[in-house]
């Protein structure tokens, strides 16, 4: 034991002295290429897709090399970026989720890509406007959209048929939704074996249900015309969303599936509920894993409004400010490559995220994919049918993560019998306080 | 040292001031590695945290001095009050139950019986599972549609409970899984303590013909007290810091019922980008736990029986 | 997390795919090396400190001990970012140094060993002083061997704790060659899109297996240590 310990100690001193490797974050490789680091949060299958795209980019030209590095979840990579910003460890390109947009703009650490668009007269009209506008402020394009998704209504066609509903006719208005949910709910004694609908306790879905009514999340045109100072989601439109959930839950047609995406999908796949809201990016996996026919439809809306469409979610790519000019050029070149129709078609097919360049949908691989998964086309149509406005452009606030937590708490309190208006007002009051505090940011 | 001196009785330390100084220096020398490392990696960040708690700060650093505003803000917020409540409840649910369970299992397997090793390995095995992996397993078991708990409830004729989605049960559910996760290590420590007890004491007791309970009260527990003192202190401190299972099972929900202070600190520091508030909460938590532990040392260690 | 989580789907294919998806072998090696280094570092540093706390009398001893204990109460969220900056300024990112050194001092370990050392009769120490044995020899030749069971317990604890670390390694490493297994597990999962749980579960099994093996081996040693090590 002692000898073992002594031996190991020697070994470990050796290890410590031998293993201080130096690995510069970015710079020039020996073959004269400019190397840049690209931080992303794409795990699992998505990482394989990202790596393949980067590999193809690296071999498609001989000036630049991109090195993709997985940095954990969106929150983790953003934290790490904030900590290393301005140092040699900072990457040239980072993928940041949509809720971090305002924070990135305010951070002062990023270079808006507009500079390069202007310099080159790059034609941004080839981008999907309903996607790129999210990352535009005062007409300036800050980041390059990358992986984008929107919510849709997913439903179990087999269950529809059994309930005597038309599986090709998904509910669109709240009353249609309630009616369908009622028919879909199967009760056995005091137990419910199948619920009508489920919405994940996640702030994003609330934002979307609000936006499709043309509702604003915060004042000053969703923070797009000026710094947001107050929450405005607790108006009539927001109340309609909360009332829908509250009413359906009380009627026993709504299933509370918690905060976990995987839990919700597992419940849907095991038939616990027949309809749910899901991300467009998850549809393909859903279709593959379900042993029933999955239908996809537009987001539902209250009876008396014209649906305005959806806000884009997902993430975009941001360029660092404090890096050398040639590295910024490399980053821009890589971004341009990413937005070509060819790459976007591949990305759309492999990941299920939207193509930011609609020309991609004309590519053959997309057409084939859509034949196999007609559901995907519905998600794209919903995006195209979206009416551009500050409501569907989405809120621009730096305290988005916290605002979403408040909405979640509000949603959860509905299941405890809280009054929808009271729940919403409480969330709004909390968000107001945080907004006030956030307004004092650097 | 010469042989003649070795035969003399040990001199009292007071009579030799030089030796005293040497002992003093040598003592510190043994502590030096720890002190340096703690200084750099624990106390420095702690002082920085105290400093940041007086500022508005984000992940890039402080940007506006605000005095005690962060503290006022926290102490007056409903959210923090529910965090305090959740933390206290969580500690009460997990610490006594965890220690009693471990003590019970350790007493049970302290006997020398053939094949007891299997049980010892089994009971300590929860220690080998990471919190992340165990949490995923528990999440699966709590799942209302496919989990084992709802199957049992169904079999017994009760309605399936959404353990993790119901504010009345979520904290209990997280506590239950925590007791399970922590039991392995506490068990191992207590078993080690039990095995360390001089077997002669038990043989004498046997000769005297005392009951098991008397033996437990008069021999086992006093002799085990250094170990028990350790495990109680450490379990308390750890319970205040529990994070992993909450992040995976509930994310502090539903309706903030499991939003313990450490989780709230995590959210502010790593998600909400409000480092000032996170720092102030960390300082509050630190001093509360410090006070409790100091009390524990003052009151508890007097009762501990060292050899 | 659908029904496929059940063992029936853990086909061999999933295991092979795990190794193709992420460089798991490198990660396993890194985790093993860092965990072993941390384990030895913690055992040495903690036992030295615990020895001083039990067998030496010097001014301020109890205060310093409580100061040590207080380090356990500092939430890790508060220390993580400043420590990362320290590591960065020392140039220890992407190296074993940054992954191990910050964890060498462990109040928990010092406390655990102190409690054990305290059950060792003081007469033993006095006798060694009489015999003129240096403190360091006494520590190495007497104290450590009789405390074998506590040292093994602490060793298992430190190895496992380090093996299961996620956020710190993620912060201080930027290259796959320096990364550890828990990052690999996270890397197998996706956020918005359904993860392939068959593969994730295969990864979990691969990562848990070494720790369970270690625990069982440690247990065996512990059984022997427990029966032999106690001093009567």
CATH class of chain C: Mainly Alpha
Distance from N terminus to C terminus of chain C (CA atoms, Å) equals 53 Å
> How many discrete domains of chain A?
2
Number of strands of chain C: 0
Backbone CA Rg of chain C: 21 Å
Q: Which structural class matches the secondary elements of chain C?
A: mainly alpha
CATH topology-level name of chain C = MetI-like fold
Low-confidence stretches of chain A: 18-26
User: Strand portion of chain C, in percent?
Assistant: under 5%
Q: What CATH architecture of chain C would you give?
A: Orthogonal Bundle
Biggest interface reads: B-C, 84 and 85 residues
What is the residue-mean pLDDT of chain C, rounded to a whole number?
A: 87
Question: What is the alpha-carbon Rg of chain A in Å?
Answer: 24 Å
**CATH homology superfamily of the largest domain in chain A:** Periplasmic binding protein-like II
Secondary-structure map:
The complex is a heterotrimer of chains A (442), B (307) and C (232).
Chain A: H1 2-18, E1 27-28, E2 34-40, H2 44-60, E3 64-70, H3 74-84, E4 93-97, H4 101-107, E5 110-111, H5 114-120, H6 129-132, E6 136-137, E7 140-141, E8 144-149, E9 151-156, H7 157-162, H8 174-184, E10 186-188, E11 191-198, H9 203-211, H10 219-223, H11 236-251, H12 261-269, E12 273-279, H13 283-289, E13 294-297, E14 313-320, H14 325-338, H15 341-351, H16 364-372, H17 374-384, H18 390-393, H19 400-414, H20 420-438
Parallel strand pairs in A: 2-3, 2-4, 11-12
Antiparallel strand pairs in A: 1-2, 4-14, 5-14, 6-7, 8-14, 9-12, 9-13, 10-11
Chain B: H1 3-7, H2 17-52, E1 55-58, E2 61-65, H3 69-75, H4 78-108, H5 116-124, H6 131-142, H7 148-155, H8 170-195, H9 199-208, H10 212-240, H11 244-249, H12 261-271, H13 275-300
Antiparallel strand pairs in B: 1-2
Chain C: H1 12-21, H2 24-55, H3 61-70, H4 76-90, H5 96-100, H6 107-118, H7 122-130, H8 135-146, H9 148-163, H10 167-172, H11 181-187, H12 197-229
Family (chain A): Belongs to the bacterial solute-binding protein 1 family.
Organism (chain A): Terribacillus saccharophilus
InterPro entries (chain A): Bact_solute-bd_prot1 (IPR050490), SBP (IPR006059)
